[in-house]
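Structure (tokenized):
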């Protein structure tokens, strides 16, 4: 490097050194070679848990270890068959657990991949977006406000750039960045202002840089080991269930000890009782619960991905089901973000524009007559501002053969727009009326840009033209009018008097009331030596030229999604930087604003105290002309009012509100890296309807978790109870240890998992949101578990006792009675599993709807029958074939718990319900 450091090199030296072209970037082949040579642009991660360790972890459980110990003893005592079978069952159990956990882990990893960052890079003269990890040294990268810097970049162009480098330098105030050469040699990182470092954040401006270091060679790579980037992946529910699991272990062990002691006191052999006790403990402890919860969460998350919602933080899945308010951006989320200018206002003249989409074909009409823009100097000025104060690029897309054949009506699809849709609409307007970017090239040279951001609500460029310099500005009409002292009226520049300003505001209002997005356009000639380094130096004393009004139709699916939210007790609030009238008009079209609802704008919001805002917040449905920092106030006010808030955002300044919201939502397409990193949910299609889909899935996942908790715990209560009651009554063991383990395996495994992917109940989105602090056992779940467990236990014991009565002292009859108890217990649980699908009873849902569950139940049944009827297995499982009478007994005893309670539930649902969770009347907005 001629002994020079990167920050000391000029453009040509950089190009030479890196063997790259700043105009065209690298070619793909060269990039591939460099990628092979230097490896991926990634910071190396910590070690993952290997599958073997994950498998061995399954045996870590204390009771499983005790059982293995007990089995070894029984093996030593000569009970080989028992020992081998128990070990085999434990291994199958471990494999099941392993598969569950492994799947859960892989889905979580896949999720991380999905939200991996991308980079805008120039390759072979074309701007493309590639995964950031594929960047190589010499790549030309474009970054803009809100982007995380994807590699160490030597900047070659910078417009009003600031970077936040606290991760690297500890300095939390953003520092200015430029593209000039710095002469000093030894500079601390914080002073290398022409280098943007990997992992830091561009908070303002736009820049272009060449990659000088990637991956572990970057400055961030050097300290990578010090940075901990793990996200909290355990959800509150998982945490609570873990706690519950610990309590249940103690309860199960306590009861088991009781069973063992009672058995021994009633004359059972001590060793047999010990083995039965340990088996019972293993069966009764819901060790599969955490894994199944993770699976249910992970599979739910996969379903959400299919519905275009990518979860970044698992806990938000639970919170989704509790959301009471969704605060949504307007542009692009509620609307299509496909803008077309349809109206122009030019110093009192109203002009309509024809044409659709991005195709630059259309005309201007004033009072029904076509306007000849070539001879209309004011109009040409407006079109020039629109074309030059603009970063969007209109180009002809390469069409596949099949599309080309489809005929002329598809022609508009041939045009492709890159960049901000608002700017795209202005490029198309200019091109339609004969002022294309190409026609201005060479005549105007851009010298400076003061980029758009949601705070400033405007953008300016300084261009040189025929020896002079001109400022072109466009932005929100009201903001721009405040910066203008002159106006172009009838082709002349005249003072912008309050009368003319009023006319202009009225024109903007009337466009906004017609749902149009309104932008003002202005310009100013700079004096020969006038300083123009900052936006305030450029954007003053401007000459107002006119207004453009563009349509941005609402997304079709959003109206229904908002209605669904209303039925689900969720309020939708629009928060937008756009004009209040435009916002209100669109809110009305979408059905956001109920009677009595209020719209406020940024100024009114600023004038309100927190107390006033709190009082009004529940009634405000539209916030217009707000800046991103207002969003944080809105979130806080709603939270103080007891709401669980979902908030969308896309820009850098939205990040604090996204972080503060209970569910922070970022836009996958238009969102900045900063907003995505702050979010817990990313919308792959930027669509409001996807938020509603995610909420529906979130509610479904929670209900599914409740379903299998209900199933697993009721089963366990039944298992413990049958043994406990038998021992207390001085009866022989109703189930031998292997049978207990087998029941645990066939019922807890597949059926419980199948419940985790069960379809939601139809009225899921007609219920009120679940309170955030709701106990998992709320809504009578605890009662359902205990009552059903008791019934299953009693019925199983009754079947055992009745069978035993035929010959109480016969060993043969005991084996038969144990087989009957075994079959009853398994069958009762397999019937109960269908019951768990409904918050009411088995009669309220089609039992065949969940195919996985039907398959799981059938396979469990086959396994049960196999154990009873395959001769080779009978001595192992201590079973005998049973006759017709016994089967009748089994069916009656196994069916009673579900059907008795089912009929009770049907009868009670027919009575008027006093305390329902359902919203009534459905569909009415809840204005408090
Ligand atoms: P939302 O917050 O719902 O996405 P929005 O897109 O209108 O709405 P902003 O992007 O903050 O919000 O824009 C605020 C205002 O700034 C717009 O109403 C428009 O008048 C103006 N504006 C938008 N884009 C540009 C741009 N590229 N250049 C200049 N002004 C713009």
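Design, position by position:
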């Amino acid at each position: 490097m001629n002994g020079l450091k990167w920050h000391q090199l000029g453009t040509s030296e950089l190009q030479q050194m890196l063997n790259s072209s700043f105009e065209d970037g690298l070619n793909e082949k060269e990039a591939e070679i460099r990628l092979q040579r230097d490896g991926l642009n990634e910071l190396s991660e910590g070690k993952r848990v290997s599958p073997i360790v994950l498998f061995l972890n399954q045996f870590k459980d204390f009771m499983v270890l005790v059982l293995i110990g007990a089995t070894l003893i029984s093996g030593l005592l000569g009970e080989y068959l028992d020992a081998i079978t128990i070990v085999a069952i434990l291994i199958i159990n471990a494999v099941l657990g392993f598969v569950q956990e492994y799947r859960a882990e892989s889905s979580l990893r896949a999720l991380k991949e999905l939200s991996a960052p991308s980079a805008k890079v120039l390759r072979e003269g074309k701007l493309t977006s590639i995964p950031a990890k594929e960047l190589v040294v010499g790549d030309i990268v474009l970054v803009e406000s809100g982007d995380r810097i994807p590699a160490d970049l030597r900047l070659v162009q910078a417009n009003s750039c600031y970077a936040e480098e606290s991760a690297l330098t500890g300095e939390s105030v953003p520092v200015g960045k430029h593209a000039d050469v710095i002469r000093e040699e030894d500079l601390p990182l914080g002073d290398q202002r022409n280098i943007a470092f990997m992992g830091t954040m561009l908070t303002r401006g736009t820049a272009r840089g060449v990659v000088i270091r990637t991956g572990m060679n970057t400055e961030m790579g050097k300290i990578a080991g010090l940075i901990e980037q793990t996200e909290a992946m355990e959800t509150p529910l998982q945490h609570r269930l873990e706690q519950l699991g610990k309590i249940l272990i103690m309860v199960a062990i306590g009861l088991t000890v009781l069973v063992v002691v009672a058995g021994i006191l009633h004359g059972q052999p001590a060793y047999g009782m010990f083995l039965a006790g340990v088996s019972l403990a293993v069966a009764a402890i819901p060790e599969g619960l955490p894994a199944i919860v993770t699976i249910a969460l992970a599979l739910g998350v996969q379903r959400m991905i299919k519905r275009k919602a990518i979860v970044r933080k698992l806990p938000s899945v639970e919170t989704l089901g509790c959301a009471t308010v969704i605060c949504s951006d307007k542009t692009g989320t509620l609307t299509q973000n496909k803008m077309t200018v349809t109206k122009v206002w030019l110093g009192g003249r109203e002009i309509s524009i024809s044409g659709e989409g991005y195709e630059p074909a259309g005309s201007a009409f004033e009072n029904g007559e076509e306007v000849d823009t070539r001879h209309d100097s004011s109009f040409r000025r407006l079109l020039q501002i629109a074309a030059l104060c603009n970063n969007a690029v209109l180009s002809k897309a390469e069409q596949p053969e099949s599309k080309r054949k489809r005929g002329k009506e598809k022609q508009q699809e041939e045009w492709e727009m890159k960049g901000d849709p608002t700017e795209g609409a202005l490029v198309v307007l200019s091109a339609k009326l004969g002022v294309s970017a190409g026609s201005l090239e060479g005549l105007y040279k851009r010298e400076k840009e003061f980029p758009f951001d949601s705070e400033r609500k405007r953008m300016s460029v300084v261009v040189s033209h025929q020896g002079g310099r001109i400022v072109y500005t466009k932005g929100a009409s009201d903001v721009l009018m405040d910066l203008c002292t002159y106006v172009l009226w009838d082709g002349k520049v005249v003072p912008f008097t309050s009368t003319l300003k009023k006319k202009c505001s009225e024109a903007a209002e009337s466009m906004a009331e017609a749902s149009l997005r309104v932008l003002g356009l202005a310009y100013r000639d700079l004096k020969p030596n006038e300083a123009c380094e900052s936006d305030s130096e450029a954007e003053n004393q401007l000459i107002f030229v006119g207004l453009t009004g563009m349509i941005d139709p609402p997304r079709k699916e959003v109206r229904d999604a908002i209605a669904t939210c209303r039925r689900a007790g969720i309020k939708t609030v629009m928060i937008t930087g756009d004009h209040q009238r435009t916002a209100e008009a669109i809110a009305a079209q979408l059905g956001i604003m109920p009677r009595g609802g209020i719209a406020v704008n940024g100024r009114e919001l600023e004038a309100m105290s927190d107390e006033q805002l709190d009082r009004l917040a529940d009634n405000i449905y539209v916030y217009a002309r707000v800046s991103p920092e207002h969003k944080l106030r809105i979130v806080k006010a709603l939270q103080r009012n007891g709401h669980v808030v979902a908030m969308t955002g896309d820009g850098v300044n939205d990040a604090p509100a996204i972080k503060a919201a209970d569910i922070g939502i970022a836009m996958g397409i238009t969102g900045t890296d900063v907003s995505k990193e702050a979010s817990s949910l990313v919308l792959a299609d930027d669509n409001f309807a996807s938020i509603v889909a995610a909420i529906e899935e979130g509610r479904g996942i929670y209900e599914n978790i409740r379903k299998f908790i209900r199933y697993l715990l009721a089963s366990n209560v039944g298992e413990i109870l049958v043994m406990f009651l038998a021992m207390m009554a001085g009866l022989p063991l109703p189930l031998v240890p292997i049978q207990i383990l087998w029941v645990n395996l066939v019922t807890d495994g597949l059926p419980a998992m199948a419940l985790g992917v069960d379809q939601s109940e139809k009225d899921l989105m007609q219920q009120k949101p679940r309170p955030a602090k709701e106990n998992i056992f709320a809504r009578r779940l605890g009662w359902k578990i205990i009552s059903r467990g008791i019934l299953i236990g009693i019925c199983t014991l009754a079947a055992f006792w009745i069978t035993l009565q035929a010959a109480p002292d016969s060993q043969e009859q005991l084996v038969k009675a144990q087989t009957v108890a075994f079959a009853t217990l398994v069958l009762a649980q397999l019937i109960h599993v269908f019951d768990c699908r409904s918050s009411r009873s088995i009669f309220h849902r089609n039992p065949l709807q969940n195919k996985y569950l039907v398959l799981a139940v059938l396979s469990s049944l086959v396994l049960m029958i196999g154990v009873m009827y395959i001769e080779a297995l009978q001595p192992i499982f201590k079973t005998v074939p049973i006759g017709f009478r016994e089967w009748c007994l089994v069916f009656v005893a196994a069916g009673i718990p579900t059907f008795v309670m089912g009929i009770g539930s049907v009868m009670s649902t027919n009575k008027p319900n006093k305390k329902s969770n359902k919203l009534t009347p459905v569909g009415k907005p809840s204005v408090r």
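Reviewer-requested clarification: Residues 51-104 form one domain. The chain has a mean pLDDT of 85.
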